[in-house]
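Side project, low priority. Logging it here so it doesn't get lost.
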Amino acid sequence: MHQDELDLAIENYTKAIALDPQDAEAYSDRGLAYHDKGDYDRAIADFDQAIALDPHDAETHSDRGLAYYFRGDLDQAIANYNQAIILDPQLVEAYSNRGTAYYDTDDLGQAIADYDQVIALDPQDADAYYNRGNAYHEMGDLDRAIADLDQAIALDPMLAPAYNNRGLVHYDKDDLDLAIADYEQAIALDPESAGSHFNLGNAYASLGELDRAIAAYDQAIALDPQDADAYFNRGNAYFSLGDLDQAIADYGQAITLNPQDADAYANRGFAYETRGDLDEAIADYGQATALDPQGMDADSARGFG
């Protein structure tokens, strides 16, 4: 719904509640409308009232969990999903959403167990395979990650993030050609994905195809001009090509966007040193060391050592 449609829906649910203050469904529906507007506090308040009137509605517990999740309260989200599952052990969305909350708390084993349950209840759920594949990737189980992402793509060949994330797994396995093929498919399905262009640039850079890497970083930056890593990595590519001026400019932009990045100062210092600008190099190395007291130097600069 558009904002004006949501406002109208909220107005109508409010009228329904005024006519029947015991109408749990009206509170629940208004809570969903507030959720869609991003007003999670009001959504939770409405779900609270709906649950007070009808404590056995599993979906409302699940919906309240999702509102807590988006508000950033993962413990409350999980508690609500737990209650939803107790009330309805077949409620797929509760397992799926709880798995995502566990994933975000780095409890990958529990996340995978929940995604297992989603798949057991709905073997055609492409998102469940996608999410479980991401969890396996995070755990370092790359073969299982690829198997799940393969299945997600088989079930939903238009799922662009699955291609992108399978590309990340292939990249970690050093299967760069396969990674590039997946990133390119992700971009074909979603040309506006800055992340896929960025990942493509990294794969080309790892192959030493620096002109192609720079072209991919150019596109990533055009789509997301606030991505400090894209400037940093493009700076590395320019440095490797011997274009020190452009490398320094990109490191400078990375520093502007992320002033706490010791590596960006170190690499710019290395570029300045290579160009013969020793005062600037010393200043950047000093800043890198201040940010990283463990000791930054030219040899440890990210991308060169």
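Brief comment: The two ends are 51 Å apart (CA to CA).
Revisit when time allows.
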